[in-house]
Write a structure and sequence with these properties.
The chain has seven helices and no strands. The protein is an all-alpha fold.
């Protein structure tokens, strides 16, 4: 297992192109999710009853941009740690959470289905938690970079549930 210090001190420039791969994967998922969300933001989402703790719409873009950047760097750091004993155990949760993240936008906004989105976001939360566990075994820094993402999705679970119940 790599330590935080060894992870940060090891400049291997052949690893840098892979950071670009992780950035493209994460921001590609973000772009797809955004495309699934956009139309509902003007004609459907404003009509929903929302809880008092619903953040203003402008906060979502900056928060998600930071979270996608952290996801990419975490994935890259885990990849840099070397081949895992079981690649499936490490990468299936990571790419599953990325796919579920995108799918949530499609279910909630494109399909306009907060109930099904709530069921899906529980799976997303579990996939993020599994990714954190797997990454921690490889390099704790990568796992810690995903903690804000898990915290935000935990809040999103509550928000999604509340919107679903208020609009049932």
């Amino acid at each position: 297992m790599a330590t935080v210090e060894s992870t940060l001190r090891r400049p291997n420039y052949s690893h840098w192109p892979m950071l670009l791969v992780f950035l493209v994967a994460c921001f590609g998922a973000a772009g797809t999710g955004s495309a699934l969300t956009t139309s509902a933001l003007t004609d459907w989402y404003p009509t929903l009853a929302k809880p008092s703790f619903n953040p203003p719409n402008w906060i979502f873009g900056p928060v998600w941009s930071v979270l996608y950047l952290l996801m990419a760097v975490a994935g890259w750091l885990a990849w840099r740690a070397g081949p895992p004993p079981s690649a499936t155990a490490v990468w299936v949760p990571y790419f599953t959470q990325l796919a579920l993240n995108t799918a949530w936008s499609g279910i909630f906004f494109y399909l306009r289905s907060p109930g099904w989105a709530f069921a899906e976001i529980i799976l997303l939360w579990l996939a993020i938690a599994a990714t954190i566990v797997m990454f921690y075994r490889r390099t704790p820094l990568a796992a810690w970079l995903l903690v804000p993402y898990l915290a935000w999705v935990s809040f999103a679970v509550l928000l999604n549930f509340s919107i679903w119940r208020l609009n049932s």
